Each structure stands twice: as structure tokens, then as C-alpha cells.
Amino acid sequence: MVWSASTRYEVDPAPLGLALVHDLLNTIPAGRPRAADLLDGLGDAQAWVDQALACWAQERGQAAAQVHLTESDLEELRGLRAELRRLLASRNDGGADADDQTVAPTVHVAAAAVRMDRKGRAVLEPRGQGWRYVAALVLLEVFQAQQADTWRRLKVCRNTRCTTAFFDRSRNNSGVWHSTKTCGNPENLRAHRARQRVRTTGS
Predict the structure, then answer these.
(1) Phi/psi at 159 (5° precision)
(2) Residue 183: CB atoms within 10 Å
(3) CB of 2 closer than 8 Å to CB of 19
(4) Is 50 helix (H, G, I), strand (E, B) or coil?
(5) pLDDT tens digits for the chain (203 residues)?
(6) In sequence order, what are the residues at sequence separation of 6 or more whose Cβ sits closer than 8 angstroms to the Cβ of residue 113?
(7) In sequence order, which residues have a C-beta less than 8 Å from that of residue 62 and are 6 or more positions away?
(8) 113 SS3 class
(9) What structural domains and CATH numbers belong to the chain?
(10) Which class for 162: exposed (0-12), middle (13-18), buried (19 or more C-beta within 10 A)?
(11) Is the pTM of this model over 0.85?
């Protein structure tokens, strides 16, 4: 199974279920030429949800519910995506230790239930229909990533012309570009030329 949103930007998915959050973040239009917004129309959104939930189920070894979206679900999913992207983008402004509480999502509330599985483990399960189920699953994965300390590695490319979401696998979690070749090198070159112009003007 392939995470369709992230694959089109040639980024490796985040590990385990966090890849669902990663893929949602990458449903935006980005790249050159611009890829389509996968949450813009009902057909594309349903196709993305079907594929993403199948990938999630495979990663987690669990069954995912069948989710049928309506037109009214799309705005809610785009809103959740925007809030999560705003939260990640704030790290580019305030650094890795930025206070998440100042930009945390405040609109989306999702329901989950706790049950005991056959191995005696307490398991959180999403509840709801349509966008609410997707949102519950996404936020549960965010919660689990925060507990595992992998959430801080999910980032948005610092190149404002790109903003592709990526999972930073560097040892010290210092990555800021989704691709050094396509974003890092051009941005560093632009910054270098800008500094040269300033020095030339000032001399």
C-alpha cells in the first residue's frame, strides 16, 4: 500500500500510524507544478480517505472502519489539516521548543473509547462517522506520537514556496527542508546572494 499524498512529493512516510497524520498534511497543493488539493472535491477526498485508512490499517495491523464522506465533511477535514499545519509551521518561527499551546487546535474535538483487547492491553479506538472518525484517528495518532516522542520530528518544510510535510530522521532532529536538493540548496543560495547584495550596497 502507498501513502498517496506524501508519495507524490517524494517523501518517506512517518513511521507506523503517524504516517496517517503525515499524509493528511500532504494533501495540500504543493510542488512544481502544483499538485492537486486532495481535499478539494468529494471524489478526490473519498479516494484519499479510502487509501489512507487502508494504509493505516496495514501499518497498525488493525481493521479500519469504512468512512463515507459528504460535501460537508470536506471543510472540517481541511480545517483540521490547516490547524495541524499551523502548529507544525510555528516551529519554524519559534524553534523546536515553541509553546504548542499558543497554536494548538481549538476547534476540533474527536471522540474515542477505551477497551481491553485480547492480550489485556487498554486500546484507544476512534468513534464517530465521516470526518469525525478520521479526525479521531488522526488525533489519536498525534497523541501516541507525543507519548513516543516522535511528534517533534514531523515538520513542515521551511521553504515557504514548498511547505511539504516531512519526518525528520536526522540524529539531532535538526532538519528544516523536506529535500536538501530541491529546497535547501536553492534557499541557501538565495540567502547567500542576498547577503552579498547587502555587503555590496553597504560598501
Answers:
(1) -70, 110
(2) 21
(3) no
(4) helix
(5) 899 999 999 999 999 999 999 999 999 998 777 889 999 999 999 999 999 999 999 999 888 789 999 999 999 999 999 999 999 988 776 544 444 444 444 556 788 888 888 889 888 889 999 999 999 999 999 999 999 999 999 999 988 888 899 999 998 988 888 766 668 555 555 554 555 656 666 65
(6) 124, 125, 127
(7) none
(8) strand
(9) 4-202 (1.10.3300)
(10) buried
(11) no
Q: Which three cell numbers stand for residue 7?
A: 508519495
In the chain, what is the straight-line distance between the N-terminal and C-terminal CA atoms, in Å?
58
* Contact criterion met (CB below 8 Å) for 110 and 132: yes
Q: Where are the alpha helices (DSSP H) in the chain?
A: 4-7, 18-25, 42-60, 71-94, 131-148, 185-202
- Please choose, from the candidates 7, 161, 24, 155, the residue with its C-alpha nearest in 3D space to the C-alpha of residue 81: 24
DSSP conformation class of 1: -
Cell numbers standing for residue 77: 477535514
pLDDT at 202: 60
Cell of 94: 519559534
Residue located via cell numbers 515538520: 155
Got the DSSP string for 62-87? Answer: S--------HHHHHHHHHHHHHHHHH
Query: Does residue 203 contact residue 183 with C-beta atoms inside 8 Å?
Result: no
Is residue 183 within 8 Å of residue 202, measured between CB atoms? no
What type of residue is 84?
L
